[in-house]
Structure formats: C-alpha cells, structure tokens
Amino acid sequence: MLILLLLKVSNAGAQDILSIWDLDSIRDRSTLEVETLWCADTTFEDPLSLVGVNLSIGEIRFNSYGGYDGTIRIQAFFAYPTGSDGLPGLVVNHGIGMEGSAELAMGFAASMYVYALAISAPGRGDSEGAGSDAWNVVRAYPDPRINWFYQFAYAAMRGLTYLETEGEVDNDWLCMLGLSAGGVAAFQSCGVDDRLKLTVPCVAPTDFMCSIRTGGWITNYLAEAGVDTLDSNMVYLQRYLAPSQLVPYFHGFVTIISGAQDEFATINCISCVWDIMDPERRRLEIIANFDHVTYFVALGDHCGEYDSYDNTVFGFTRVYGTSSTVLGFIRNGTPVPGMPAADAAMDPGGIKFTSDVPLYFWTTDNVTLWLSLDSTWTFTGYPMERAGSFPSYYYRTTVDVDSTHNLSNIVYFVEVMGLPFLYFSSTPIIPEGLIPRIRPMPGEYLPVAETAKTPDKFKISCYPNPFNANLQIEISGVRGFHETPLQIEIFDINGRLVSSDRQGSSDRQGCLSIHGIDNSFPFSQAESGSEDIRNRKGEFTWQPSSTPSGIYFIKVSAGNDNSFRKVIYLK
C-alpha cells in the first residue's frame, strides 16, 4: 500500500507544485473591488503592556477565488494605530471553526503596532464560498484549487494585496500570522508569495500524512468525508497543499509556535518542515502544557473531560510577544537571537539535563526544562541554573528519575525567555518512532463548528455588538429560571475573569450582585415569556462603566449547559 501511495504522489508531482497558484491574479489590485462597511476610532488595551492604544478599525469586503463558486467576496476586519504610517502590514488567519473579527485585528494591531487585517476564510463568517466541512477540507482531486485550504490561502494573499493599497502600510513589510487551519494557510502563502517578510504559523499542522500516522485531527475529517489515505483526493492534498511540500520555496523569516500536546499539530510532526528549513531564517517556540482545544478555551469547553489545561494567557503571551519581538529584530536589521540547545545524560543523581543558551537570554536567567515521562501527555517544568563562565555559559538541572529509566522513552525541550516578550524553545528531543499520546477528539467536536449547533433548549444573544454603553444579554430556552441555577461570567481577551455571578432559585429579583475583579459592573434582570420552555427569556444588562475598550467573552451556564458569546466594547 505504501508503494502505491508513493507512486500516486509521484504522478501527482509531475506538475509543478507552484503552478496551481496564479500570482498575477492574486496581486491584481484592480480586481479587489474593496467595499468598506463601517469604520470607527477606539482605544484598545495592548494585551502585553495593558496600555491603551488608539486604533482606527473597520470592516471591508474584497474579491477572491472560490473554486467552483468563481469570484467570491471575502469579509475582513482592519485595525491600525490611529494617525500612524509606515506600518508593517499583517494578515491574521483564524482557525478552522472560527471566523475573522475586529477583536483579532485589534489584538495584533495593539500588541505588534501593525496594520492588521483579520480575514474570514471562504464560507466562514460573512465570507462567500464553500465552508470548512469535512469534504471541502479533504477534496483536492482532480484540481487542488477546489480545496478549502487552497482558497483560504488565496484569500489571505489577496489580503496582502489589499494592505498594499493602504497608505498607512509600508509595502516592503508584509507579514502573515495564522492560527490552526489559518496557520496552514500562512505556511502555504509563505511558500508561494515572496512579498512576505515574516510568517508566524501557530498550532498549525505541518504535514497531513504525519497527522494521520499519529491519529491526529485529519483522521476525523477523512472518516467524515469517506476518504482513505490512498484516495486521489488525499494524494493531491498531501502533494500540493501540505506545508511540508512547500518548504523549499519558503520566503522571509518563519517563526513556528505550537503546543507540546497539540492534537492537530502533534509535536513529532514539526520535523517534517523544521529539518529542511533554512536554519538562519527559522525559529521555534513550543508551549508546554498547551493543547489545541486550549487555544480557544475562552470560547467553550469543546472536549469536556479531555480539556486538560487553561493556559490561554500563557499561550497568547507567547504568540503576541514572540511575534512582536521577532518583527522588531528583522525590521531593524538586527540578527534574531538563536535558540537554545538541549542534551541529557544519565547521572548518579538521576538524569542531568544541560542547555547551551544564546547570549541574548543570559541576562534573564529564565531557562526552563520541560520534561515528559508519559509520551507527551503531561510536561513538568524544571528551572535550570546557569553554570560556567564566559564564553562557555550553559544551564543545567538534574531530575531525580530512576537510573534504570530508558532515555529513549522521554520527551523534552528547553524554553528560554528574553526581554521584552521573546520566547524560544529548543527543538524537542523525541525518541525515534514515538507516537505522542494525544487527547481524544470526540465526535461532537469534529468536524468542527460547521455542523455543531447550540441546543434549542438554551442559547444567548448579545446586542448591540459592538456596544459603547450598555450590553443587553438575552437568554432563552432555560428550563425554569426559578429552578435552574444560572451563572454569568465575563472574560477579557486574555481569558482573565472580569465579573461573575451565580444566581440561585431564591434570589431572582432586582440587580444581580457581581463578585469579580471589578464590582462596579451591575447586571439588571427581568424575566418574561410564557411557560413554553422554548419561549422563556431572561434579559440582563451589563454596564461596564470602568472597563477598558476591548473584546470580551460572555459565558452563561445553566445546569450542565454552557453558551458563549463574543462582544466588543468601544468607549
């Protein structure tokens, strides 16, 4: 079977991989037909410094390619520091079950000081085109251009073309950052578009066949689409669109950020691209105890018992900080600091780990060994101490492990942090042939949100959104407001709890008292509707008088049911 697959891939490769990309059309500004739907000025809190940044924001539509659908309109949101020019342009790509949003653009515009454009992939949000259901994700035969990943990357590169038309953007500094499936689109764009100076794929699969071998995310899509690995669709998907196939054509600088326990982009698959990338133009950050579901934990508990970590702040600090710092280095013409190296050996006291660390990081002494003894299911962090003298500085720690333990059964890497917010890791040391132990992805989670629906018995709506004074929160379908305990929680974009309240059956009248970070955010509530469960409603008002502008997540829990809504507060 393996020989047959290789023959199919070889035949598919008779056509140049890059020939499927029409760069002239991608870069044609005259066919964008940009429409601006709205624009505004606001102040948004930098996720790193927590200082307010004045931003100009808005929403647009532009033309892109939709395969069988022909020309499609793409939804995008822009944000940039008000009154600035000569800004780097950054296209931000979302994950497979998500969509572009003003908050995505604002978060990166404020933290990286760029002109950020957050697009909605074809069929997501208000973008036209085929959606990200299993069949559209997998199908690639007889023409890879019918594939959703292809059309996502095409739209992202059209986003670069839009940025070139904006007077605030320095066209010599176009960048792209992608999360999850958006990271795949970023990888693909990096191999196709020589306009890119910096590409940051985050928690992004690097090779589809490797993901299949580890039992990762794509196996669910193959099963849903009724496709196996020998199917021509899978062969073409791997040959033309897998990031690993485009590595020889990568442009600019690439910083890969991934989770150590990622179910979509498993840690062992990184080598599919890493080992053949240009060492001078690549950097890596592995985030320990960070799995793929955690990446959007603020949006809901997708996998229930398998959600293992709430490291949202931990992860996004690294995404925002590392991306911003690397961009600063390459834009200033300063060499980007190197990565640490890691090694291990048996010692009478256990396993002795050592790490050579680049000079840039020595002033912080923030060096951590991350070690897994259970095939990456969990990692434990061990601070490392500086040893030696210049120029032979290195770091070391000894972990008390039974001396009979086989070194071939452990996985480890070293992470360093330098000012202001730069995080790099060593390449992970993984025993040959090890299959990471990843968290299961239950059927109700995949194929992602394309087919997922909120149960009819419980849902919430928030309006107006964006809002600048009061937010109305309407809850419908809860069985008996007088009988079901109700909890409302509000989180900021970094996953920090802003306010919370649990309302029981004995206290259903008047204002809800808030027990959170800021007690000045009152809710008012009034119940209405008939006894028909489907029509029962609860109406609440949030008045965030002292809260900074930004993105917030409203979580409402009733019994075992949860519902989430994302809102934008603009003062």
Structure description:
This protein is of the alpha+beta class and 571 residues long. Helix content is 20%, strand content 32%. It is built from twelve helices and 26 strands. The chain has helices spanning 2-12, 23-26, 102-112, 134-138, 148-164, 181-192, 208-213, 218-225, 232-241, 243-246, 271-274, 312-331, and strands at residues 35-45, 52-65, 71-81, 87-93, 115-119, 169-179, 196-202, 253-259, 282-287, 341-347, 350-356, 367-372, 380-383, 385-387, 394-399, 411-418, 422-425, 459-463, 471-476, 486-492, 497-503, 511-512, 523-528, 537-542, 550-558, 561-569. The strands form five sheets. Strands 1-2-3-5-4-6-7-8-9 form a nine-stranded mixed sheet, with helices on both faces. A five-stranded antiparallel sheet has the order 18-19-24-23-22, with no helix packed on it. Strands 10-11-15-14 form a four-stranded antiparallel sheet, with no helix packed on it. A hairpin with a 3-residue loop joins strand 16 and strand 17. The longest helix has 20 residues, at 312-331. The radius of gyration is 24 Å and the shape is globular. The N and C termini lie far apart (61 Å).
How is the topology of this model organized?
Blueprint: H1 2-12, H2 23-26, E1 35-45, E2 52-65, E3 71-81, E4 87-93, H3 102-112, E5 115-119, H4 134-138, H5 148-164, E6 169-179, H6 181-192, E7 196-202, H7 208-213, H8 218-225, H9 232-241, H10 243-246, E8 253-259, H11 271-274, E9 282-287, H12 312-331, E10 341-347, E11 350-356, E12 367-372, E13 380-383, E14 385-387, E15 394-399, E16 411-418, E17 422-425, E18 459-463, E19 471-476, E20 486-492, E21 497-503, E22 511-512, E23 523-528, E24 537-542, E25 550-558, E26 561-569
Parallel strand pairs: 4-5, 4-6, 6-7, 7-8, 8-9
Antiparallel strand pairs: 1-2, 2-3, 3-5, 10-11, 11-15, 12-13, 12-16, 14-15, 16-17, 18-19, 19-24, 20-21, 20-25, 22-23, 23-24, 25-26
Helix pairs in contact: 1-9, 3-12, 5-6
